[in-house]
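Researcher: Hi, I'm a grad student and pretty new to this. My advisor asked me to get structures for two proteins we've been looking at. I'm not sure of the right format, so I'll just paste the first sequence and hope you can take it from there.
Model: That works fine. Here's the first sequence with its structure tokens right after it:
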Amino acid sequence: MSAALQVTAFGLALLSTLFLLLATCTDCWMVNADDSLEVSHKCRGLWRECVTNMQDGVRTCDQYDSILADHPVKIVVTRTLMITADLLAGLALATLVLGLDCIMFLKEDPCVKLKMCYGAGVILCAGSILGLIGSVWYAVDVYVERAMLVSHNIFLGVHYDFGWSCWLGMAGSTGCFVASVLLTCCRY
């Protein structure tokens, strides 16, 4: 496998894994404003809900109940999928680092190093699919929630948008998938 391709895949995998981790840890998966005057800005996430007063910039956050408490399905499923995607992407990065040609580990056996890169690509692909499913699951649920309010004429100035954490999760998952394709399909 060419060293340039390996380094490119590693860089993309590293950046995408950081995006996935950041998306999992941050709390702006769904954004809504309570009024048409944009007095407050509310972000809902996987772990808490934060409201920012637009006039003075004061931000207050409410933690969700215990992780063992009953939560909506979209939060539980998204948490599970994103944490699993983070763990798989981290494992793939560790495997990929050891499989890089520029690393001295197993330098005398290039066949094993090539298999390690291939294995890292497969693990990265699994993690990217789980992360993408989690991000899209949450986004679809936000869309359905908004559509239900509009169809029942309960709109009342409230609008829902996908937050930057949701977009970050999708971008990280897509980047991990591209890196896995580079590692599994472009080897020689």
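Researcher: Oh nice, that was easy. Here's the second one.
Model: And its structure:
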Amino acid sequence: MAGGGDALRALLRAANALLQQRRYHAALAVLKGFRNGAVYGAKIRAPHALVMTFLFKSGSLREKLKSIAQATYTHSRNLAYFVFTYKGLMALQSRLQGKKIPFHSFFAACIGGWLVFGENNPINSQIIMYLLSRILFGLSRLAVEKGYVPQPKQDPFPLVAALIWGTVLWLFEYHRQTLQPSLQSSMTYLYDDSNVWHDVSDFLIYNKRTDSK
């Protein structure tokens, strides 16, 4: 037993020594990026899938758990692959050109986005929409910082909020099929299901009566 413990400690020392080698830093950063992408993807998707599945999806418990596991795995895998691809291409470009320039980031992310998130499925679609909203905010702030757009005299956020809510509810009421399925489900629960009840049970306690399905 003691020999096994000594061997394990020696292995850990060797691993720690390897991790301190600067010449391997870029390659090791790519590997840790893969690890962090997998972990972060699972942390983000698992609770979201759990809530959305049990709130809006029908089916047996086994089917619901399978759906949650599949969504979590897909998000975790895709994010891990993307981070691995992005950081790998960043390191390669920096090595080839001898320095890091802004275009490297754009190019590496474009390639990673095409390869990993190019398939049009519910998970990828949700991630792209999440990023799109933040990109629009970021580009708006950057335009002001660079002087391309004058600094607003008043906070534009109330107007933005009004236009976004006005547009999304108009789409929901008259062009519902254009909205992402999970958003449709959420809005149906909020705005359609609240129009229907039979007694106190499905007015205050439940959303729908079990015998009305």
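Researcher: Is there anything I should tell my advisor about the second?
Model: You could mention this: The chain has eight helices and no strands.
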